[in-house]
Amino acid sequence: MGHFSTMFNGLARSFSFKKGRNSGSLDDGGGRESAKAMLKDAKRKDSILCTSGVLNSEGSDTFASVFSKKGEKGVNQDCCIVWEEFGCQEDMIFCGIFDGHGPWGHFVAKTVRESLPPSLLCHWQQGLAQAFLDPELDLEKKHQRYDIWKHSYLRTCAAIDRELEQHRKIDTFYSGTTALSIVKQGELVVLANVGDSRAVLATTSDDGSVVAVQLTVDFKPNLPQEAERIIQCNGRVFCLSDEPGVHRVWLPNEESPGLAMSRAFGDYCIKDFGLISVPEVTHRSITSRDQFIILATDGVWDVVTNQEAVEIVSSTPDRAKASKRLVECAVRAWKRKRRGIAMDDISAICLFFHSSSEQEHHLVSPL
After folding, report:
1. Which CATH number applies to 32-49+61-343?
2. What SS3 state is found at 71?
3. 288-308 confidence digits (pLDDT tens)
4. Which of 148, 204, 256, 264 could hold 127 in an S-S bridge, CB 3.0 to 4.6 Å?
């Protein structure tokens, strides 16, 4: 139970932020207040990154590189967050990438970026507290730790979507955002995906070469299980004549809103017709062969393959410039492969698992 004790000590530390003002009860809102307090404290300590740059806390093996570039469609509706020592846990880090769409998309994306991490912490705290009282649970077992995270993510995403619908300052009827995030807790990585951003792992094969492993599903409307749900809800899925191959979600009797993804926060005009905000939650155990994870919006994956992406990142000598180089390569690929089409916003997070010396031991020479 050693690992469990460590996690619960972190939970106890989190409550100290609100000690004296309220009881810290998870049921009376104290959990959410303590999570918000942790968010403010982390920002004060510079352990949160919300713009292009790098995050590498002293004494930590993990290293995050973030970069975002505005496309040719107006304001940049992509945004990111990296939070080291997530939940007062030294071995935890949270990364999230959000891709807004619609007239208010940039506001929706930033709102979800701000609310998802503390809300997730609140629900995770609840799960830990309940597990602490259950003698049958052993959180040394990864699948039980994962179960708490999965349940926490499902509750978090449902709550966020309800809150967005009632938001007084943002019009989310025809606007929304995707959300792809991961929590790395020691060697356990939990992924939650709403939309069509993608997570790709770089690992080392037996011959020493870097290999891409896709960790998430791009939730496009033409995926069989997604299309079936949409059609059963009387929504429609089809491509416009001038966009062959780009499947979109449409209302039953209108040529709107034309969403190019089947899951998103917001977009309440079509929530009754098959669009959902339920995340697919999965997990993976990181090994010594696994080098880094790329989280990127579809602006990258529309023009760069998984294998190309991991080779671009792994062959960048300065890890601080890894995400910027990936985005710049995607920009060039847009100009080459999609002439005449307005470039999308392009954003990426590269989360490295090992120190530079360890990485050099495992990865092949730069291309």
Report:
1. 3.60.40.10
2. coil
3. 999 999 999 999 999 999 999
4. 148
